[in-house]
Specification:
Elements (H helix, E strand, L loop, with lengths): L2 H6 L6 H12 L21 E5 L2 E4 L4 E4 L14 H13 L8 H13 L5 E5 L2 H16 L3 E5 L25 E4 L4 H11 L3 E7 L1 E2 L7 E2 L2 H14 L2 E5 L22 E4 L10 E5 L4 H6 L10 H17 L1 H22 L4 E4 L6 E4 L6 H12 L2 E2 L14 H22 L1
Parallel strand pairs: 3-15, 5-6, 5-7, 7-10, 10-11
Antiparallel strand pairs: 1-2, 2-3, 4-12, 8-9, 11-12, 13-14
Helix pairs in contact: 3-9, 4-9, 6-7, 9-10, 10-12, 11-12
The structure holds pyridoxal-5'-phosphate.
The site of pyridoxal-5'-phosphate (PLP) has 13 residues, from helix 5.
Length: about 425
Amino acid sequence: MNVAAKTDQAGANDRDRALRERAQRVIPGGMWGHMNAARLPPEYPQYFAKAEGARIWDVNGRDYVDFMCAWGPMVLGYRDPDVEAAVRTQSALGDSLNGPSERLVELAERLAGTIPHCDWSLLAKNGTDATTICLSVARAGTGKRKVLIAHKAYHGAAPWCTPYPAGTLPEDRAHQIFYDYNDAASLEQAAAEAGDDLAAIIATAMRHDIGRDHELVDRRFAETARAICDRTGAALILDDVRAGFRLHLGGSWERAGVRPDLSAFSKAIANGYALAAVTGADRFREAATKIFTTGSFWFQAIPMAAALATLDKLHALDGPALMERAGLRFRQGIQAQAQSHGVKIRQSGPPQMPLILFEDDPEVTKSKFFCVEALKRGVYLHPVHTMFLSCAHTDAEIDRALEATDGAFAAVAAKFG
Ligand SMILES: Cc1ncc(COP(=O)(O)O)c(C=O)c1O
């Protein structure tokens, strides 16, 4: 009997389990990376069948109001009709060609018109591509080596930044000096340590380390980063991969009044189509022409058409404000429920990128229990990672989610008192 036939016998009702068993034989560890459901409680599905708006269906046919948005990309909602129409139009013309389509120039113009610090852009596929290119441009432009990085910040999965260093070398992380996010004094100290060899400061849009209360960027910290770069000629790199286009369409530090020299975007830029962008100021234009960076699929026209449609619609809807309102409705509902059940929680992050943690919960046992109870009632939350709202999170979807979380809080109160 072949593997597929054997797993069919595992039962049509548990396609997820059957797929996991098949995967164990042909995929290392059964799954890799951030989407490995083994990092979550066992009740979480690994495999999904379809999605629409703010809803996602697992392969067992259960649907959830989704608060992960494919870990960020779905900013307008799954299968947004305007983005899908742009994709169909481009698909009829072509995607991978011998060179880019006109969409490339249109998109670079659109980014320059949308993001105040952006005079030029380079496109790639993943956030890691974009943050890595930013470092190369900074080093090519300054001729210097040292990069200041926040402790525990996530900038991607390349050898220089992966949080799991198996298979990497200490040399991959040479010339890195660490500071504490939002701590201007520690940034100054790291800059002093770099001396006259400082190429760049890289910072995420906000502090969003796993399992820790999220923090918006502190204005004084952002201004200090800008001042150090102005003083030394180093590049200020904003890693806007996770937050980009959710907090502000001009870049997430616009809210703090500080503009970077280089930014890395990906996730939400094309509503789920594979695209990343490095945006840069004129000062680093020449450096960006010197580095060689490319990829077989980096010039595909469909994701660029999707990005143009996504940015148009985010502007038309005022997406960040819409998501903020939806996130506030959710946050206020969650706070009222926690209080009414006598459960102590901490909510952090901007409303459109929320995190819910529980007091007296060092092993995140309560968080995980709460999320499983919500999952059973049709809401997909994450116990320790940034969550994401989309423009498809209507009042009705938020209210449906809140019905489920009320039951989940009742279960937490009953179990943990
Ligand atoms: C802040 C930040 N930078 C970089 C990355 C890496 O992006 P990607 O997974 O698309 O390579 C991520 C991904 O979660 C991220 O959140």
